[in-house]
Amino acid sequence: MNWYCDVAPDDPVHAPYHDDEYGVPVADDVVLFERLCLEVFQAGLSWKLILKKRPTLNAAFADFDPVKVAAFDDVDRTRLLADPGIIRNRLKVDATIENARRLLVLQREHGSFAAWIAAQHPLPKDQWVKRFRKTFKFMGGEVVGEFLMSIGYLPGAHREDCPAMGRIRHLDPPWMRAAVEAEPTP
């Protein structure tokens, strides 16, 4: 997604996400869940639309607290599908609620969503996609790939000459560590 480095810096909607979040390693389960859900909502739509709707999505989904979202019921589902501030797609809303429930299972089994992700690493993208499809709902290749790039588990978020890449490099994202570990020893 190297084109993002060209268009984002001058865009008031894209720039903050591009500069401060995209590709930055994340270990907080609430942030991870929000990022996963935003990618689900983005499927088939523009990322700019999702970034514009991010505040209303957060408000509608209890700031993406997985414990709260997992407790959503039919009343909440009806409320969400009537909310013009979000993406009112029944499949995406249902996937978000179900994914919160599945995330809670991962937390019980692995200590955290972040720990589950770390335990899978490193995998090639196609294996990541299979793992996410087996574990969560509404997981296509783009959803999984963008999610993992956004949290530092897959390369490609930024060009090498992008100033954001320079900042991320110092954070030692998992994809960089995997690349170093995979280098042949002389």
Describe this structure in words.
The model has no long low-confidence stretch (mean pLDDT 95). By secondary structure, the protein is mostly helical. Helix 3 packs across helix 4 and helix 3 runs antiparallel to helix 10. The two termini are 32 Å apart. 63% of the residues lie in helices and 0% in strands. The chain contains twelve helices and no strands. It has a single domain, classed as Hypothetical protein, domain 2 (Endonuclease III, domain 1), CATH 1.10.340.30. The relative contact order is 0.15. This is DNA-3-methyladenine glycosylase. Keywords: Metal-binding, Zinc. It holds the Pfam family Adenine_glyco. One of its GO terms (molecular function) is metal ion binding.
Lay out the secondary structure:
Layout: H1 4-7, H2 14-20, H3 29-42, H4 47-60, H5 66-70, H6 74-81, H7 90-110, H8 113-120, H9 125-135, H10 141-150, H11 163-169, H12 174-182
Helix pairs in contact: 3-4, 3-7, 3-10
